[in-house]
Structure prediction request, 682 residues.
Amino acid sequence: MKKTSTPVLPARTAPGDGPLLAVDDLHVEFATRQGVVKAVNGVSYSLNPGETLAVLGESGSGKSVTAQAIMGILDMPPARIPRGEIRFRGTDLLRLPEDQRAQVRGQRISMIFQDALSALNPVFTVGWQISEMFRVHRGMSRRDATKKAVELMDRVRIPAARQRVNDYPHQFSGGMRQRIMIAMAIALDPEVLIADEPTTALDVTVQAQIMELLAELQRESNMGLILITHDLGVVADVADKIAVMYGGRIVENALVHDIYRSPAHPYTKGLLDSIPRVDLKGQELYAIKGMPPNLLDMPQGCAFHPRCPYRQDDCVTDAPPLYEVGPTRGSACHYWREVFDDSRR
Amino acid sequence: MTAAGEPILEVRDLVKHFPLHQGILLKKQVGAIKAVDGVSFDLRRGETLGIVGESGCGKSTLAKVLMALERPTSGSVKINGREIANARGAELKKVRRNIQMVMQDPYTSLNPRMTVGDIIGEPYEIHPEVAPKGDRRRRVQELLEVVGLNPEHVNRYPHQFSGGQRQRIGIARGLALQPEIIVCDEPVSALDVSIQAQVVNLLERLQREFGLAYIFIAHDLSVVRHISDRVGVMYLGKMVEIGTDVEIYDRPAHPYTQALLSAVPVPDPDGRERRERIVLQGDPPSPANPPSGCRFRTRCWKAQDICAQQEPLLQIRPGTGHASACHFAETHDVVHV
Prediction:
């Protein structure tokens, strides 16, 4: 795929060989006053149509920055992408000229954010903001676009959509606002939807509604979904496969059933072990010691080694590659075999 | 820990309404947000009572009233038999020493211009009888050690600590006056997943060491189950069900509790297709204008005419061993959180 001419974006209907979206050895760094922050250090993952990939990690793990790089919404500078490819239907988005990139953003790859209230513009009605998608990208008239907005609000199940289309964001509850965000994101039938902590700010009952809605929309349109979250419960509920991130790297990737049954990285194992369990009530919870790494001052070798119970001398000096654990899974731990055997008990 | 012994905190028919005004000059009350509307419970020495419910159910207002940060509209709150709802001045100060709070957000609840030593030692300014001036620094350092921080960091500022460490500072401040009760309002929800377990373990260790009683308010139902001896479920200003952790989680009797439990994602993908899930429709109604009778009836699949006419009281219902406020309460094992 090394061409010197500008790459051309394949059509929606292009027969796909290979994944819908593939991130390959992506690096993102930020120039700050304190130095260069390496937020993403060689992340690779892929997504097929109709598939749900969960990207799991805590704050600072690089999960959101990767997503922003895919969307092309990083502020550059201060951000810089020194290496890597983001291939959408085989075309590297990073080498695409901006006018073509804009054709992808929002239309073929779209995104929803954690905090719907700050993602929506408070001085425009929700109908105006949803219909903007059609006016700007499809050149529709105001009247037609508003009609489309009402249809979409129905589709994301906002009650009395026709009456509420002229309401402002503050007049909606948190769950309804997130539905409006989803309506905007799916307006142009994207092939990939990135959901960055879509339910973190919501109550569990509302979270269940939103996750159900996303699953339904995905079934209808066969879109690929990237779900960015820190919630092990949500992941277990909806994901097909998981990429666990720590310190800007993927430390483990696997199919969802495999990873919960037998994690092969000490960080994943630690997270799963620290979930409160009924049969262990009254006992101390397992806790990963220490704290997440400072991105300005990353530990040498494996980023997890200061907190790792499996640490050996070489972990401090050599960063582990993503070892193959099985045909569909990998773990970035020199001692994954021991972790794997321990977690199978 | 057993739930025996005399109650240290007694709450009876607690009501907190926030008036809604209209007009600028002649302010007229046009209604009220019924944030807490008739809540009763006991808390025993050394016990943890978990309070769960959706946002807007009144759990944080309840915490503020217990802390005497808000005056209740009516009802009574007694700590060791002493009424705090109408206490003032010196008397209020005295009872407050016994009940302290740990806040949700360790980033905004610590003053960035004060050193950690000053933050943790500030309660002694208000209650000098607890620690004489010359003794305070040593006490603060002891507290830092108790919560697992380095006592030498007493002169550092909050921004020099991580989120989990800041929450430990907040906990140390809560412990400073050696209270018997600590109200924890979402103490771990702002922390990273790998840090939450550390803080939960710390709270449990402190409880064992100091015989503390906790009111533990949280929306993470699995953490609440882990730490609580008893759990109360709130909906729209009412306590709809209260019982031991086993009663609430394994034999919930109120439809709302069942729906809430079933909505919690289980961190185990095996069998996720077969899992029963009750997805509630819509959002909770406004606490300014709650439905008549049972407040949950507008979203309840069991609702009948009686639910609109008669408010179900929180009492032990036939076939269930614990109190619930539903005319049609029946136990139903939904999921294992």
Observations:
- Chain A has a mean pLDDT of 87.
- Chain A touches chain B through 47 residues (CB under 8 Å).
- Residues 51-72+96-239 of chain A form a domain with the Rossmann fold fold (CATH 3.40.50.300).
